[in-house]
Amino acid sequence: MAMTWRKSSYSGDDHGQCVEVAAIRRAVGVRDSKAADAGHLLLEPACFASLVEHLKRTK
């Protein structure tokens, strides 16, 4: 399954720590941009949305 990964617009171009996401059928892929070959997580869209909201609150 081919996935198109994108980096958050909040991530800078300084090659720092960031997470990449990919939208696929009925899921959202999440991976570490510095360790892309290490694998990825697949989250249901509702779980991903909850994660993002949690991160915004704890920022």
Description of the molecule:
The chain has 59 residues and is an alpha+beta fold. The protein is 24% helix and 29% strand. The chain has one helix and four strands, in the order E-E-E-E-H. It has one helix spanning 45-58; strands at 6-7, 19-24, 27-32, 41-43. The protein has a four-stranded antiparallel beta sheet. A hairpin with a 2-residue loop joins strand 2 and strand 3 (27-32).
Number of helix segments?
1
Order of adjacent strands in the largest pleated sheet: 1-2-3-4
Number of strands: 4
Strand content: 25-35%
Runs with pLDDT <50, length 5+? none
Summarize the SSE layout with pairings.
Layout: E1 6-7, E2 19-24, E3 27-32, E4 41-43, H1 45-58
Antiparallel strand pairs: 1-2, 2-3, 3-4
Keywords:
4 strands; 24% helix; 4-stranded antiparallel beta sheet; globular; alpha+beta; 59 residues
Structure, briefly:
It is built from 1 helix and 4 strands; from the N terminus they run E-E-E-E-H. It has one helix spanning 45-58, and strands spanning 6-7, 19-24, 27-32, 41-43.
